[in-house]
């Protein structure tokens, strides 16, 4: 759409919980059509929760990322494909080293189109036979997203060595490599 000679980009949100949000930013960041990837909290009952509150598993919130993207450049279907490559969708108790409700996986849809695409994507993954256990990642309506504290934002850039050792030490990198190949375990 053009306004006053300036082309406006069409931005949408995608919200994914995939365990530790530190590990969910890098795969999506700096791709064409991705405007921003914020770490934060969603799905719970406490307004403006802190990291300590969310990790106590008393708020109902998930650690999540909210991606602002241009669907004409990077469609939601591609975001879903990339999301599945980052998680163990068969684990109902958290992700890798991180256990508890706040580290569980979920896709939070922002409209009926996203819901339909997420359901189709989940069904395709289940029917692929890639995993021998059921895909348990729920598909839920988006709720208020609360950005995490500043020190969590783009952690992989601010603390490269710690991020890399955590990504490997948590078991995430090895899982991704075993299930999806070496190219996706970064």
Summarize the entry for a quick read.
The chain has 186 residues and is an alpha+beta fold.
Tell me about this structure:
By secondary structure, the protein is of the alpha+beta class. The protein is built from seven helices and ten strands. The protein has a six-stranded mixed beta sheet with strand order 9-8-3-5-4-10. A hairpin with a 2-residue loop joins strand 6 (94-95) and strand 7 (98-99). Helix 3 crosses helix 4 (112-128). It starts with a strand and ends in a 6-residue tail after the last helix.
Rg (CA only): 16 Å
* Overall mean pLDDT: 92
First-to-last CA distance: 36 Å
Number of helices: 7
Strand content: 15-25%
Topology pattern, helix = H, strand = E: EEEHEHEHEEEHEEHHH
DSSP, total strands = 10
Give the low-pLDDT segments. 1-7
Order of strands across the biggest sheet?
9-8-3-5-4-10
Shape type: globular
The largest sheet, given as strand count, sense and whether it forms a barrel, is:
6 strands, mixed
* Percentage of residues assigned to helices: 25-40%
Structural class comes to: alpha+beta
């Amino acid at each position: 759409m053009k306004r006053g000679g300036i082309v406006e980009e069409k931005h949408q949100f995608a919200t994914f919980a995939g365990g530790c949000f530190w590990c969910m930013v890098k795969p999506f960041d700096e791709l064409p059509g991705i405007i921003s990837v914020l770490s934060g909290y969603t799905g719970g009952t406490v307004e403006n929760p802190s990291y300590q509150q969310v990790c106590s598993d008393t708020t109902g919130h998930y650690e999540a990322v909210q991606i602002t993207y241009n669907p004409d450049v990077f469609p939601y279907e591609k975001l879903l494909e990339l999301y599945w490559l980052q998680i163990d969708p068969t684990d109902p108790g958290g992700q890798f080293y991180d256990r508890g409700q706040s580290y569980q996986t979920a896709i939070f849809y922002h409209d009926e189109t996203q819901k339909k695409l997420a359901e189709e994507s989940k069904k395709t993954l289940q029917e692929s036979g890639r995993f021998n256990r059921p895909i348990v990642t729920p598909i839920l309506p988006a709720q208020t997203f609360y950005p995490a504290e500043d020190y969590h934002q783009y952690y992989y850039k601010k603390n490269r060595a710690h991020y890399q050792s955590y990504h490997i030490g948590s078991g995430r990198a090895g899982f991704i490599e075993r299930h999806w190949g070496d190219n996706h375990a970064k």
